[in-house]
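Quick one - first record:
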Amino acid sequence: MYAGAAIAVGLFGHATPAGVAWLRCLGAAVVLLAWRRPGRAAWRGRRLALAIAFGVVTAGMNVLFYEAIARLPLGTVVAMEFIGPVLVAAFGSRSLRDVLAVVLVACGVGAIADVQLAGSLAGVVFALGAAAAWAGYIVLGKRVASSEGSGIDSLAIGFAAATVVLSPLAVGTGEVWSSPRMLLLGVGVGVLSTVVPYALDQVVLRRLGQARFAVLLALLPVTAGVMGFVLLAQVPSWPEALGTLAVVGGVALRSRDEAVRPVPEPPG
């Protein structure tokens, strides 16, 4: 996911952040539809409505995320964005160990963020908007994964719908269409940052409760920090490094819980 984000940052000089996010959505929709070819049942009724809502919320989260990383370091944005999963995990917590894990993760994420509001207030606003959308992604994603049929098919339909809904953002992609290399990179961002991780999310969400899933997502700020260091030369501070250890500790504490009984895969 964050290897794709690092590539996206390189495209910001040729397209707007929102335009790059739309290209990501388009690339993901094309690849997912070609791969899954959802049947007629997936295009009707409640299942279609849920898929569209999920796709639009997820694509909106990506737009807000890209606007944020255009203004703030990648690791900082992901840490702030993680407020959404932390809230989902907190509302789903039942035991003292759950609460301790969420607190430890929240403290770690706060240390990683090390936000300077004076640096880019707009970046902070976009990151917080992405956090709210991420919470929506988890809640809707669990419903999609648990619904009848394939969650990945619904993912394909959702991104197709989101590509149409957010099509005005394509105005910011003009220069990309004149370069096959940049267009290929845009599609690559869709595959790396959407097709692979979100399809895996659907597999995991069928087997875990949304609260436990939300805590496991705490590994993402760690990954983002590593990618920011390796690919973008964004060196973490000591508080960020300590925050990373706190996040890993919180995930380990929460992961000791008994696993939720897997949801059976649909026949066929």
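second record:
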Amino acid sequence: MALVSAALFGASTPFAKRLLGEGFDPWLLAGLLYLGSGLGLSALRLARHREFAAADSEASLRRGDLPVLGLVVLLGGAIGPVLLMWGLTTTPASSAALLLNAEGIATMVIAWVVFRENVDRRLLAGAAAIIGGAVVLSWRGGPDGVGLGALAILGACIAWGVDNNLTSKLSWADPTQIAIAKGLVAGGVNVGIALAMGAATPMGTAALQAALLGFLGYGLSLVLFVQALRRLGAARTGAYFSTAPFIGAALAVVLLGDRVTAQLLIAGVLMAIGVYLHLSERHEHEHEHRPLTHAHRHTHDAHHQHTHAAGESVSEPHSHAHHHGVIRHRHPHYPDLHHRHGHRRRER
């Protein structure tokens, strides 16, 4: 899920660059991308599409989740995409695509430092390689140093890094519901601001292209990303998502004719090493599950051995409030909904 999400988002970068080259206002395009995401997912939800709008088997967001959801919409749906579109206006699409690797780093650092998610030496080494690639790629040399466009893209990555960690706290809920709220609210607000600032209204075909790009590269991608957060945690999902920029950079070279420079190749090699270190991680140790009551989509696996009322018709997967008793066992795992425990130094 994380890799497919990365492919969809990575492919969107060069296409967004092309739309900007056709005269699209950056702020308006950022809004249309998310508005297209929200409208497209809403249509799928109304049609009860089994893959992306299976609301019957997903838990719904609660009123108490609104403050976190509001921050997710603001940072990830409003601020992040505007910074990215503005950065794309002055940065080659291939370079911008690889710079987006910084989102995975920001996600991992925030998960590790702020939310205390376990990150081992292998992941840290991979992060260092990806950061090195981002520095090589963003450096412009001479007195200008790092270009303003690159700084805007890095700012978008930080906004999305915070967004990803906050979304991880909501990942037990219906991912389509989260993505629709983010798309409709943030997209609608940014489109309104852009038009109020005098942005020219795009022709019907161009607006449709932007909406379709947003539906695929932001909407479906986000749904899959939230499902990956549920299973992998924020740091590791961010690491897997770091494959997105390579897809975007490759498409930029093929579709937009961006030059393959030594700077691009060096950065790509460093980032490839970092992503490999992330993808080849294995984490296993004896751990204890503390008592927990929550609701989310699940099947009756080793971590879900509860019973249902007599005569109750149950299909799998399903969602309801359920209780976890104390379990102590050993198996490979990620910091998913049931494995966000602490670690002793020797277990890292």
